[in-house]
Amino acid sequence: MPVNHPASLQPIPAVIAVVLRDDRVLLVSRKNPPDVGMWGYPGGKVEFGESIEDAAVRELLEETGVHARPNGILTAVDAYERDQEGKLRRHFILVAVLCTWESGEPVAADDAADAGWFAIDSLGDGEVELSFDVQRVAQLAREALPRSARD
Q1: Radius of gyration of the chain from its Cα atoms, rounded to whole angstroms
Q2: Residue 112 DSSP class
């Protein structure tokens, strides 16, 4: 059931760039809330007047130095930031943009503490702590993008 909050507590529109390359997905270790230290997709807030796809490509480049071509919206995910008592502080609506790698190797920058390629089949094996829905979104991306476009 929706809760009425002041306008300052409305959901925040943001994007994540889901980049595939050879059955691997690009992830970053978050430096800032929500999910500090967890691995997720590069992304951030959409700037006023910026398209969703442009925001995803910009955030990807800022956080990793990787260039990619957007292939459309894949899905949307809710992300919640809570305080130490569990009270909701911020609610992000993350629009996942499916992208095809074009060039560059990931180097952590901006609000990413680390960056790297991960085999989609290894996600969830406990090697790294994943943000909510990372594995599910990676599987959706693999199903949506033909193999020839991932190589």
Answers
A1: 15
A2: E
If one counts every other C-beta atom within 10 angstroms of the C-beta of residue 25, the result is 24
Ranges of residues in the chain whose predicted pLDDT is under 50? 1, 150
Residue by residue, DSSP assigns 38-60 as -EE--EEEPPTT--HHHHHHHHH
What's the CATH fold of domain 13-142? Nucleoside Triphosphate Pyrophosphohydrolase (3.90.79)
Residues 62 and 146: their CA atoms lie apart, in Å, by: 27
State how far the Cα of 65 lies from the Cα of 61, in Å rounded to an integer. Answer: 4
Summary count for the chain: helices (H), strands (E) = 3, 7
Give the pLDDT confidence score for residue 132 in this predicted structure: 87
d(CA 41, CA 115) in angstroms, rounded, equals 9
Burial letters 58-67, b for 16+ CB under 10 A, else e: bbbbebbbbe
